[in-house]
Amino acid sequence: RSSPDVFESRMEKRNEVKKQPVGYSSQGEFIRCMEEKARPIFFGEGLGTKTSKGGFTKDKTLDSILNVEMVKEKSAEEIKQIWNQYFAAKDTVYAVIPAEKFDLIWKRAQQCPSFLYALPRKEGYEFFVGQWSGTELHFTSLINIQTQGETAPSQLVLYHYPELQKEKGIVLMTAEMDSKFLVVHEAQCLANQVQLFYATDRSETYKLVETFNHRSSEFKYMSVIAELEQSGLGRELRPGQVSDKS
User: Fold this and answer.
1) pTM score of the predicted model
2) What is the pLDDT along the chain (246 residues), one digit of tens a residue?
3) What letter does residue 233 receive in the DSSP assignment?
4) Which end of the chain has fewer surrounding CB within 10 Å, N or C?
C-alpha cells in the first residue's frame, strides 16, 4: 500500500522466477545475486525482525522448553530419551548432537556462516540459503532472496542449545518452520545437510562451504546437488527425527 510501484515490480519479478523450471539458475546470475543482495550477511536485519512476526518464537530459550535444573541430575542418555520422546509426537524437526560434532560445526560456522542447500523437488531442486545467527540457523529460499533481498523472511529456523554440552556432552536442537513453504521431511532434509556439509570428515565436501563463503566466483551450485545425491539425503526422508549419525 505504501509503495505500490515497488510491490508491482517485485510481483512481476516473482512471476518471472516462477516460470523458470525448479532448480533453474545460471552461474552468472547466481554469483550476481549473491554479490548484490546476499553478501556479506544474507538476512541481516530483515530476517531477524521478521522471525517474531512470521510465527517464529523470539528468544526461544532452552528453559522455555525443558526444566534444565531438573535434567542436570540425569545422564546424557536419559536426557536424550526425554528430548526424543517429547518431540516425537510433535510435527517438527529435532536432534541430540554429540558435543564433538557440534564443536566442529560451530567452529566452521564462525568461519563460514552461510551456505547454499538444495532441497529435492518432484522436478529438480529448490535452493535455500542458510545463515547462522548465533546458535540459530535461519533458512530462506533463493527465490526469496532474489525477489526480496535482505528483507527475505525466515522459512525455517534451527535452534541449537549448548547449555549441557560441557557437563553432559550433548547439544540439543529443535526447529520452527513456516508450514506454508515447508513440511517436516523437507525441513529435516535441510537440517541433515547441515551435518553433511559442516560436520564432514571429507575435505572436498567442506571445501564447498569455504568456496561459497570466501571465493563465490568459483562456487559451482551443481556440486551441492552432486554431494547431496552421493550422500543419499536426496531420497525421500522419514518425517521426524534428524539423524545424529551423519
Assistant:
1) 0.76
2) 556 565 566 556 555 544 444 444 444 555 555 545 444 333 333 333 333 345 677 778 998 898 888 898 999 999 999 999 999 888 899 999 999 999 999 999 999 999 999 999 888 899 999 999 999 999 999 988 888 877 888 999 999 999 999 999 999 999 999 999 999 999 999 999 999 999 999 999 999 999 999 999 999 989 999 999 888 876 654 334 455 544
3) T
4) N
Domain boundaries, the chain: 59-235
Other residues' Cβ atoms within 10 Å of the Cβ of residue 114: 21
- 62 closest CA partner among 184, 188, 176, 174: 174
User: For the chain, what percentages of helix, strand and coil (3-state, to nearest 5) are there?
Assistant: 50, 15, 35
Task: Identify the CA nearest to 43 among candidates 126, 176, 142, 109.
Answer: 142
